Amino acid sequence: MAYKIVVDIVDPGDGEIKVTHTFWSKKGQSDTEAEKTARMHYTHHLEACEYFQAAAEEGNVIEEEFLISDDEIPEAEEDQGEEVEELDEDEIEER
Length: 95
Prior knowledge:
The chain contains three helices and three strands, in the order E-E-H-H-E-H. The protein is an alpha+beta fold and 95 residues long. It has one domain (2-70). The longest helix is centred in the middle third of the chain and has 18 residues, at 31-48. The mean pLDDT is 88.
């Protein structure tokens, strides 16, 4: 089995979900090890991301945990050479 933790970060200003993080275990782990692996990824990101830290401290996160089958873990996609549109601050405010 595998495990995933989905965390939505809610904007305190308008109450809308602005960011969602998904933390995965590895394939082929026991239920206990899968949960530990997903939780480790969650903890490492929480320690490194100030936005996530602030949201967690303020209670602006919605967290769900799922025990899933190994085949539900997505495969990483290789970069297809697609360009990512970069926006300047004015364009971000317009959107």
